[in-house]
Amino acid sequence: MTQRGVRRVVLIGGGIAGPVLGMFLQRIGVEATIFEARAAPLEQEGAFLGVAPNGMNVLAELGVARAVQARGAVCDGIRFENARGRGIGVIDQRDAARRFGAGLVMIRRGALHAALAEEAARRGVAIRYGMRLEGVDCSDPREVVARFEGGDEARGDVLIGCDGVRSRTRAAALPGAPAPGYTGLVDFGGFARCPGAPLQPGWSVMVFGRRAFFGAFAAPEGEVWWFHNSGEPAPEGAAAPGPLRERILALHEGDPGWIADVVRATPEVLGPWLLHDILTMPRWHAGRVCLIGDAAHAATPHAGQGASLAMEDGMLLARCLRDEPEPERAFAAFERLRRPRVEAIVRQARRNGSRKAVSGPVAGWLRDRALPLFLRIGAAAQERAHAYRIDWEERIA
Question: Where's the FAD-binding domain (predicted)?
């Protein structure tokens, strides 16, 4: 179905939200072009993430869930341990497909980007690489113009910022928007082969260590995918130079020994990544420009929902543009429908992260005593997030 009001859309950012939105727009007969700052697809870029059942259901609606799952692995569940290696909780995901319609899929970030970009391009969504946004011109009430470094420009009926937590679209079109806030945690990660690690294939283990947090997933073919979170008082400290491997090993001294084995077996330690979020913004849109995904409501990884929320955004915004030909009214409907869900998850992610790093032995003792209760609350929040579904056929009220 061709839109009366919106026929050409400029999408800034080709990571997750951009290709998903582009494919849904293509479904309703809207021409979409993605402009990506990276010079080319980088399948080995970054670490890994989980696409939750609610995100996989969005991909299933598009018919690309199998292509994504083929590049990743289903996670059967998550075990939680304290610094002594004692189990403190389990979230069993083995019946997720029955309960939620899809399972939790672990996948390398670069592989997910590549799978989505390839499928979008196959369906006719143009992707232009090496296009770094420089400014947005909204002076003409009939269209919006994106200007890129080097002098190129693109015109569309609307422009959607899908360019992540450091969004240039947000800075250009909503200059008064609050900047993402540093949460006090820094992230590292890597991929290793460590046959001696006591990890069950298809399961994740999360360890609340004495001074830092460590998570590992036993991926197919014997590889261990891992990440580490630790507290840093300021971004400058997190970015300070120094041997990354030695910093991580020191922070996990006294924790289960297999953690050090995995870190030592890692050819290249990835990071550091400073973890930022956006708890709330006054508005996500201005005129013919709208933000989605991390550009509007960045969440830290601690709730496991960042990628899936971006996918949901793409599906719902396309539905709003399908049903409401006036762009600003479509954007207002999108924001009204999305804000309660995403901001609740951003807050939950920050609460989860606050328990990952402790300031000393007393704080660690108190945290460990409260962890079983925290995990029950977190598991209930995760179940609500996973059960959420968007009905593509439903009309925007």
Answer: 9-173, 281-348
